[in-house]
Every structure is written in C-alpha cells, then in structure tokens.
Amino acid sequence: MEMSGGPVEDGWRMSDTELFSRYGDVFVPRRREQVSAVCDLLADIPVPHVLDLCCGEGLLAEEYLGRSDGHRVTVLDGSAEMLELATKRLRRFGDRVSVVRADISNRDWRRESGYGGVMTSLAVHHLDGPGKRELYRDIRRMLVPGGVFVMADLIEPASAVTRKLAGDHWRQAVAAESAARFGGDEALDAFERSEWNYYRLTEPDPYDKPSSIAEHVDWLREAGFADVDVAWLFAGHAVFTGTKKTA
Ligand SMILES: C[S@@+](CC[C@H](N)C(=O)[O-])C[C@H]1O[C@@H](n2cnc3c(N)ncnc32)[C@H](O)[C@@H]1O
Q1: In a domain, 126, yes or no
Q2: Which residues line ligand 1 (CB under 6 A)?
Q3: Same domain as 223, residue 123
Q4: What domain range is 56 assigned to?
Q5: pLDDT over 70 (residue 7)
C-alpha cells in the first residue's frame, strides 16, 4: 500500500531518520526493556499475527518474530528508507513478514482486520487528540476478539514537577548509554544538539503532540478496550495495553 499523503519526511525529517538509525539505542531509554515488555504483553494473543505500526527499523518485529517460528508480523511505516532498513533486518524471517507503506493518519490501511495484536513504538504522539481517539477505535476493529493492542510512546506530563523529572531521567539515561556504547559523549551531544529531549524544549514543537496517561487510558476505554493498563513507565516513556474482549 502506498502513502496517499505527502512524504513522511515533511515532519519526521531525513536528519531524524539518520540520527535515529545511529543513536536510537541511546536516545530511547531502556530500549531493550521496552521492546521486551511490548512483546511480553503479546505472549497470549489468539492469532500470532501482529501489525507493527510505524515500525522504523523493525526492532519490535524482530523481537516478536524471534520468539516463535509461528509468529507473523506486518510492518507498516511511511518512510521508504525506514522500510528498507526493516526489510533488511527482517529478511531472515522470510514470508512471515509483510510490508505496508502508509501514513499513520491515513485510514486506508485500517480496512485490514484479523490481527491478534497491534504494537507500536514512538509514533502515535505525532497524532493529535482526535487522531489518537480515531486510531484506537480503528485498531480495535482490526483485532480479532481477545486481540491485544500495545503502545510504547512519549507521554505528556501532568505537572511541571513530573515534566522536570522525566526530562532529567531521560538525559541521565542517555548520558549513561552514550558512555557505554560510544565510550563518551558522542550520542549525548547529538541528543542535546538536536533538542531530542521533549521534556526540556523551550518552544512548543508542532510535530510532537504527546497526550497524558489519563487521556490515553480514557480514550482506549472509550474505544472499547478492556484491561487497559500502563505496564511500564520511565523518563516520560510509557507502555500502554488494552484487550478487545468482544467482537
Ligand atoms: C521514532 S521512530 C520509531 C521507530 C520504531 N517504532 C522504534 O521504536 O524503533 C518513528 C517512526 O515513525 C515513522 N513515521 C513518522 N511519521 C509517520 C507517519 N505520519 N506515517 C507513518 N510513519 C511515520 C518514521 O518513519 C519512523 O520510522
């Protein structure tokens, strides 16, 4: 499926793609832990076919596919460059992987159904509130009964105090991981220079529109999800989950 809107690079810039490919393991706090948590939450889904929404390089998909030979994943992203990286990373899984190029805000791709799970990481915050509510309703429709939605994403803090803590924790995590992976501040410098730390921005960012934990929980319940929960939270990054109980 091709994107019908403009190129994703309008908002998610080429330089973001390059930065994220090089430093993603540092910029995303406790990334391995998040990836594991997302896949752990999908362990008991009724159909082992998961949609990875805005898959990037396919890290979530790689983890899910590696857990069982029966697992299948459809990866979706708006960036041809990211899909190429994902395809390369997932080549060894052969026909257990399908690829869709689409814009997350477009509704054409949401006509598909029969998924046991939908997972997504660091992308839904690009949609505004009404866009997220519509997405949650559509995702629920795409799932089989018993299917599970899991979302890892940035959240909007409820107060200045929790915003500061999220920003501080994020920077500390990046500093430690930069030292561990690059032997110094290379990745930390890139994080600071690119103003990646949403919680320390001085100007509003029109492209990033995180919502609060309370809003996400309300909207997931409103969309009909049951067992809505926050399964993991650190440095402003949260993992949400909800189950489709009935058809
Ligand atoms: C921060 S990366 C996260 C990638 C991956 N989920 C991960 O956690 O490693 C955001 C991804 O969303 C994709 N993206 C951004 N805006 C998009 C849009 N409007 N439609 C589809 N994909 C989009 C980007 O191409 C990129 O792959």
Answers
A1: yes
A2: 8, 12, 20, 24, 54-57, 59, 77-79, 82, 103-105, 121-123, 126
A3: yes
A4: 8-155+205-243
A5: no
